[in-house]
Amino acid sequence: MQTMTKRERVMAAIEGKEVDHIPLSMWYHLPQYDQDPIALAEEQIRLAKLYNLDLIKMMPFGNYVAQDYGLSVDFFCTKTQAAFERKFGIENAEEWKQLEPLPATYGTYGKQLQLSQQMSKRLKEDIPFVQTIFTPITVAKKLAGPRVFDDMRNYPDYLHQALQAITQTTINFVKANIEAGVSGFFLATQCASSDYMTREEHAEFGEKYDLQVIQAFADVTPINILHIHGPNTYFEELTKYPVNCINWHDRWVAPDMAQARKLTDKCLMGGMNEKWLEHAKYEDVAEHLQQAVEAAGRQKLILAPGCCVEMDTPEVNLLAASVAVQSL
Questions:
Q1: Where are the beta strands (DSSP E) in 150-221?
Q2: Among 240, 254, 152, which Cα is nearest to 197's?
Q3: pTM greater than the 0.90 cutoff
Q4: How far apart are the C-alpha atoms of 246 and 14, rounded to whole Å?
Q5: Which of the four, 104, 112, 161, 169, has the lowest number of CB atoms within 10 Å?
Q6: Hey, what long-range contacts does 38-43 have (CB within 8 A, 24 or more apart)?
Q7: Which percentage of the chain shows pLDDT scores above 70?
């Protein structure tokens, strides 16, 4: 088969067509770069070339969506210590009513928009890149911590008002990123789990707002990924979202790849245990990926970690994945 470009390979996988080899994506936090959009863009492009990646998932620090709303964040700017919340931004339920929609050019959101602009400017090879965003209820959890679920049950009207503001902010950010040239979005939900919400609560406080965000890009950008984070998720319901690719921790939570194939006909993105990879032996990585292909099949598959690769993972193990995928 004729060699494909990276964009052709990814799009063929999403569309269920034959590929010359299965596309690969990998990502991990880059706290030593993620406060400088130019440095972060340069580093992500360097890593994409080093590991011969077919798709770049952009890596703004995970709390960027809540900082402009009042989350206080500790920044360490070292290679192995990611930014982390210092003080939550909601201290009483009344404060949910103070949230308003923000423009995409404001504060920390604006810095992540610059990241997209810098990727477009500096990425000379045709490698698709997707911006990382979060569902509105996930943003609310990042902003308030676990109290968001108490407020959801005790002050639902307050939280609905806040979620609508966060949703509009996210849509503003999506539209600006589309203008900046992104290939799509990596939408992460970290709350769609029975550990946090009932199915009915998720339908009311999660899905309702998630779909508004997705509708802003679903018919515009070609590569739209839903990341389903954590265990005990509402996986089957979430696969009905209008995205074309599903990413989750398939190696250590249900469903596994084979089970997921029976639940959805969307492209599956995973197969790589991000926790195992940190301690793996180079010679075992190829077999690890081969197992994923056998479980999922070659069509509608992008090999990737279930979430961020551990920052201490040896470079040689990531190179092993890059080498192995060429024959898959």
A1: 184-189
A2: 152
A3: yes
A4: 10
A5: 161
A6: 38/114, 38/118, 40/115, 40/118, 41/115, 41/118, 41/119, 41/121, 41/122, 41/123, 42/118, 42/122
A7: 100
